[in-house]
DNA sequence: GCATTTTCTTGAATGAATCAAGAATAGCCC
DNA sequence: GGGCTATTCTTGATTCATTCAAGAAAATGC
């Protein structure tokens, strides 16, 4: 397992360090987790690591294409290990939980704008907004845009 | 003009105040502008107004459905006046400028997820990422995710 | 006009994320 | 294996969009 992640790092021309292997492992084990959650997971795995190191590692991994960063409106940055398969996301308006949605048309980009305004389009990102099953039956009092509340569908 | 915006506010059961009319006007005149830009526009129009008032007004207008808030990853909140027509956006990865894209399939939601995971889907948001014409010919040195730089395609 | 409710002002606080400088370490050559 | 150099991590401060809080001001309904 660990050696797999080491190989991934090496193949991406990234130096292999304990924090990097731990962060990569954490992102694979906890899809859509935010930075703070990942810091907790990494520290539980290998002991104290500075938050700055986690930020640096996540940036390096994202730049290298080993993880993907997603950031729905009103949410902090989240990371996932599924890369390069053009899948999309459903985000709960109430608790902010994220679920994957496969592209209905396969791996190829499934969307083309009606008018690209001269932009060179590289990617079409789709975010479906709605209520997760849990929030449908047990509504959370406040909207996700209100701070000070924690999702009841916590990434484990 | 002003009376139109006043009517809009009244019809939304919002009290008519100078800051609200000015913010509504500013959003109509400067589509996709960020909060800071709007603060500048509003102050140029009606004199000193607290930034907190602008935040409050934008929240009220957004909640009332008079304006729409968009927030692409790595960007601050932006506001636009086109609401209810299900259009989407192209965002420049380099300078962050935003352009509108009409829904190719008309006003109805043009997307349905392959598996909604039990979520009640309310909206499909599409963000196309790419390079705007200006950044294609005059590349900006750094990515939008890097701070400390201002778009060369400033709103207004 | 006046009372009531909402909104705006003032000023402080929050929190994710970044910056900066020095210490530690991975990878490479001998 | 030992040392060199670039990269990475630690420590601690800082930034900045946004929010919180409490009181002053203004808008609507009677």
UniProtKB/TrEMBL annotation, chains A, B:
Subcellular location: Cytoplasm
Keywords: Cytoplasm, DNA-binding, Iron, Metal-binding, Repressor, Transcription, Transcription regulation, Zinc
Primary localisation category: cytoplasm
InterPro entries: FUR, Fur_C, WH-like_DNA-bd_sf, WH_DNA-bd_sf
Stretches of the chain forming a coiled coil according to its record: none
Pfam families: FUR (PF01475)
Homology family: Belongs to the Fur family.
Identification of the protein by name: Fur family transcriptional regulator FurA1
Organism: Fodinicola feengrottensis
Gene this protein is translated from: furA1
